[in-house]
Design goal:
Chain lengths: 327, 278
């Protein structure tokens, strides 16, 4: 949630529109009305304090509906971060999973997480081929990030790509005449080769970004990717975005690819958790489970007992899994 | 505004209008409208960089205020007020002068509430004011030894009451000083050019000399003085001064000056121009 430094020159409305604050206030009130008995026992002010603290810490998206998770860039990044935190162990074990299995994992965190998004991510990993292949956690994670965070951008790029492939001037973009000629020239020799001319593709994407109101990767990163190759396929482009460290850092939800399995703080928590479980196997009060720091169980007034139970089951499950696969 | 969002959510079987009336009544009773209006006004006034963090902090402050009650232990309450005042001051950079001024006003109002008899006539107590300036300096990254000479000049006695204008001056002085020291550290790094070796003494002195000249402007209107100072400290002036030193002393290995000494010298130039509070 970066703000521009000129925020003092904006009008009040422009400032608020820039910040998504009204969206969160709306949701906070809607949630309050939905769960009024539960949330008001600590006082309405405390409720709002908890709500905004959890938004700030990024654990507000847990168990929420997909529309909410998708609604702001901050929500999307927070969800990706939680997904990584919760299921990092899978990557650590080196397990390979299929599309449907990743879909189930995502639905543990967001019950109506659509299969199409998962399939979209898988298409990036597998380059739109052999969709029943198994995928490693980190490959899937970084592709999911691109698919989910830049969804609208990818849709638009797909249209541009198809237009370029079929030799049309992309009607979604105002193309300067020089590029049009370039594009025609490129198409003549394109018949035998895969993909489209990188330069033309790059110009078209730049044109798209100039008037794009959704998230898109930085232009410099896109240029960097497209300058390295003369021709580029759609999935080659998406794969390169998914692997780009700079783009990953700009989103700020996930660590660098090399550090994706490393989280000493979480490991410590986990070890403590396992130790505790082995000492008192019957204990299941929430206070004996200090793990999952990122989950909103700390924000106790906000989450119903139902949710809390679910998390416990989940963390039990994942540690068992760890044990069994290590044996 | 709540109704708009809820229309998407399936509500139970009872009719929508009854439900929304019920909702309105509930929100009204709980005082949610006033609470949110107040928060939005504060938000728009402060325009923080991180609005979500601002609201989290704002509601937490309100909640802990009502939970601890008014006659809690004075010391705890005072520390809370102090940290809230500092938080307000951190919301905008001092170059955003009107926003910064209004944040100073909020901080001042907060601190006047501290203390056993609630309000000291005439302003914030001197002890609290001095303590706040110390915190400001250390938050600005200044070491205790660098900040001490400045604080000696602008602090007040414990029993004094600090009026707003003096309070404002003190806060701005500390904020500008912290920035100034950071800039001078950059300046030293540039002169040293190689981070492992200390900078040449002669070069440092040339730069400090330029700095001193820039600060000594003639007595004319403010705008003219700003222009004059920025002309005197322009990169080409600094480069010129450094080049002159280079020419006069040909040998490479002269005496050096370390970063701390440079910082102290720069700080002294600044502090010498701060009026002592009497």
């Amino acid at each position: 949630m970066k703000m521009n430094p000129d925020r003092f020159t904006l009008t009040e409305d422009e400032y608020l529109a820039d910040t998504n604050v009204l969206f969160y206030l709306n949701d906070a009130v809607a949630q309050l009305l939905e769960h009024r008995e539960e949330y008001t026992q600590f006082g309405v002010v405390r409720y709002f304090a908890e709500y905004f603290t959890s938004v700030k810490n990024g654990n507000h998206v847990l168990f929420r509906e997909f529309n909410y998770i998708k609604a702001t860039p901050h929500n999307r990044a927070s969800f990706l971060h939680i997904f990584w935190k919760c299921f990092r162990q899978i990557g650590k074990n080196g397990d390979l999973l299929a599309v449907l299995e990743y879909s189930s994992l995502l639905q543990l965190l967001c019950p109506d997480f659509p299969l199409e998004v998962v399939q979209g991510a898988a298409r990036i990993v597998l380059m739109d081929d052999a969709m029943d292949c198994l995928m490693s956690f980190s490959d899937f994670l970084y592709s999911l990030q691109i698919q989910f965070y830049f969804e609208e951008f990818l849709e638009n790029v797909a249209v541009i790509y198809q237009d370029l492939l079929s030799g049309k001037t992309p009607n979604t973009v105002i193309v300067p005449t020089s590029v049009e000629q370039l594009s025609n020239a490129a198409n003549e020799e394109a018949e035998t080769q895969e993909g489209v001319d990188s330069l033309v593709f790059c110009e078209c994407i730049k044109g798209l970004c100039e008037r794009f109101k959704h998230n898109y990767p930085s232009i410099s990163a896109i240029k960097e990717i497209l300058e390295n190759n003369q021709r580029m396929t759609f999935y080659g482009f998406l794969m390169a975005i998914a692997k780009h460290e700079g783009i990953n850092q700009d989103i700020g939800a996930l660590p660098n690819r090399t550090d994706v399995l490393i989280d000493p703080e979480m490991d410590q928590e986990l070890e403590r958790l396992i130790a505790q479980i082995s000492v008192s196997p019957t204990s299941n009060s929430s206070s004996s489970l200090p793990g999952h720091k990122e989950t909103p169980r700390k924000a106790s007034p906000r989450k119903s007992l139902h949710h809390r139970k679910r998390i416990e089951m989940e963390s039990d499950g994942s540690t068992e899994e760890t044990d069994s696969s290590e044996n | 505004m709540a109704e708009k969002r809820r229309s998407g959510v399936t509500v139970m079987s009872d009719s929508k209008s009854a439900k929304s009336d019920n909702d309105k009544e509930f929100l009204c009773q709980a005082g949610v409208g006033d609470l949110l209006r107040d928060a939005l006004l504060k938000l728009v006034e402060a325009r923080p960089e991180d609005p979500i963090g601002f609201l989290a902090e704002h509601f937490s402050n309100l909640a802990s205020e009502s939970e601890t009650g008014t006659d809690g232990e004075h010391l705890v309450q005072e520390q809370q007020l102090l940290s809230r005042a500092l938080w307000h001051l951190s919301l905008a950079h001092h170059s955003q002068r009107s926003a910064f001024n209004s944040n100073i006003r909020v901080a001042y109002e907060l601190l006047t509430q501290a203390g056993p008899q609630r309000r000291v006539p005439g302003g914030v107590r001197g002890r609290l004011y001095t303590e706040m300036l110390q915190c400001l300096c250390s938050e600005g990254g200044l070491s205790g030894t660098t900040a001490a000479p400045l604080l000696r000049r602008i602090r007040c006695h414990n029993h004094e009451a600090v009026p707003f204008e003096l309070f404002r001056q003190g806060v701005i002085t500390c904020a500008v000083f912290a920035d100034y020291i950071r800039k001078s550290q950059c300046l030293y790094a540039a002169v040293a050019s190689c981070p492992e070796r200390p900078a040449e003494r002669a070069l440092c002195q040339a730069v400090l000399g330029t700095l001193r000249e820039a600060l000594e402007t003639s007595d004319c209107a403010d705008t003219a003085r700003y222009l004059e100072a920025s002309a005197k400290i322009s990169p080409c002036k600094v480069a010129q001064a450094m080049a002159e030193v280079r020419c006069s002393s040909e040998q490479q290995e002269g005496p050096t000056m370390d970063a701390q000494e440079f910082e102290d010298a720069a700080a002294e130039l600044f502090i010498a121009r701060v009026r002592v509070v009497t």
